[in-house]
Amino acid sequence: MLQKGHKAELLACKYLQKNGFIVLDRNFASRYGEIDIICNKNNTIIFIEVKSRSNVSFGMPYEYITPTKIKKLRRVIQYYISKNNLLDKLFRFDVISIILDVNDEVRDLKHFQNLQINL
């Protein structure tokens, strides 16, 4: 069985592709950290963090994106942009928050678009 995080990322990719996004990369890792999904839609490069939970007693998935996590994500994104010579492109940062049921199926999916992390 897939780990819940990996399963959530697969579900997020399916959702994105269904909605016209082209997935360019997954789990891009550098010494600064990792970004879950990188995609393109309408000539904009979109960096996506996926958060999931099966139990929301301790908060919604998106509430687990801390200032420390944002700082790491910013560094990874800046590295990716530089490494791939994408300085002339448009960018944005999104979060996909998924609540899974006991069978690891989507109970709720929220897509927060164009969040400010000061790239």
Automatic annotation (TrEMBL):
Top-rank taxon: Bacteria
UniProt xrefs under InterPro entries: Restrct_endonuc-II-like (IPR011335), tRNA_endonuc-like_dom_sf (IPR011856), UPF0102_YraN-like (IPR003509)
Single GO term (MF): nucleic acid binding
Any one Pfam family match given in the protein's UniProt record, by short name: UPF0102
Family as reported in the entry's similarity comment: Belongs to the UPF0102 family.
Name of the protein in its database record: UPF0102 protein A3H78_04300
Phylogenetic placement of the source organism: Bacteria, Candidatus Roizmaniibacteriota
